[in-house]
Each structure stands twice: as structure tokens, then as C-alpha cells.
Amino acid sequence: MYDTLIRYCTQFVELTQTDKALIMASFQPLTLKRKEFLLSAGSVCNFIAFVKAGVIQHYHVKDGTLFTCDITMPEHFITDYRSFTKRVPSIYNFQVLKNAELLIVSHQNLKSLYSQSSRLETFGRLMAEQVAQRTTEIAMSLAFDKPEVRVAKLLTQRPDLFQVVPQHYLANLVGISPESFSRIRARERKKS
């Protein structure tokens, strides 16, 4: 059950047998079905989850309009770092698009894990840096790239999304209508 998470971690840091045992003791399995929520807006995010299987949409609602911020695929972590670190209510919803198997570590267990292993603390810092970088890239793309560029980036950087995520979610992720998304995607296919 923990093999995927441990293999993922070892891409970034070398783990001892003790580190591996700490991971297995600290992360708890959780299974969620399609449409269930891992996190609901207004609650404090008290976890970091490793997505072993499944697909999870991150979104928030403003003035009745849903805005997709990201989509987490297998072998990635998911959390609301602002809510998790500052202990404030989240503005995000994490809803399962495809049945998910997760390994979850609580805020308290993560602090304990870090105090017991400098390698796992280093891994945590590296993951936080990746999440911060990804968030910045998404914000910059939405602010400065034309829709055609955003769709092209999605096609080249995250082609796996197109296999499992319905098109209207992808259109929302890049900030355009599903119709515009279809037209742009068709033009991109003709180019390749």
C-alpha cells in the first residue's frame, strides 16, 4: 500500500528503513468515491494527502461561479498550504473526479515526522517548493498567456489530463468556455 509513496519520496531524498517505517506509521489510507470531498471551503485543511489513485479537482466559488484552480493526478500531493500552515479556513474545495485512494498525514503527525527525520523534513520542503512553483506558474499563465498558449501548455505539460478529465473541467482550468477550448484544441491537433 505504501510502496508508491515511498518510491515517490526516494526520487528526492534517500530514505532509511526507519524513515520508511515512519512514513507507514504516519500516513493513513483513505478511499473516496467520485463526487465526494476531500476538503470543503470553510474548513481548516488539516492534512497533506498523497494521491495513490484517482483524480481530484481543486476549485473555489466566487459570486456563484466555479473556478478550477488545479487538478491533482496520481503520484502527487494535495493540500491547501495556506490553510494547512496558518491554520485558517480554506477557500478551496477538493472534489474527487475519479475514485481516489489516498495516503493522508495530519498536521500533527507531519510535525512529529519532521522532528524525527531530517530527510523527511527536507522532502517536505522540496514538495512545498514544488507546490509554490506550480501555483505561481498557473497564476502567471492565467494573467499573461493568451488562451491558445494556456491550452498548448496544458497539452504539452499535462497530456495525461486529457485521458481522464472531462473537457469542461479542463476549459475551466485554463479560464475559457468549453466551446473555445474545443476550437483551440482542434487547431492544436492540426498543428501536430
Would you mind describing this structure in some detail?
The chain has 9 helices and 6 strands. By secondary structure, the protein is α+β, with helices and mostly antiparallel strands. Strands 1, 2, 3, 4, 5 and 6 form a 6-stranded antiparallel beta sheet that branches. Helix 4 crosses helix 5 and helix 8 crosses helix 9. It is globular and about 50 Å long. The N and C termini lie far apart (39 Å). The model has no long low-confidence stretch (mean pLDDT 93).
CATH superfamily of the largest domain: Jelly Rolls
Basic shape: globular
Count of DSSP strands: 6
Helix/strand structural class: alpha+beta
- How confident overall, as mean pLDDT? 93
Break the fold down into its secondary structure elements and pairings.
Blueprint: H1 3-9, H2 17-26, E1 28-32, E2 37-39, E3 47-62, E4 65-72, E5 76-78, H3 81-86, E6 93-106, H4 107-116, H5 118-144, H6 147-157, H7 161-164, H8 167-173, H9 178-191
Antiparallel strand pairs: 1-6, 2-6, 3-4, 3-5, 3-6
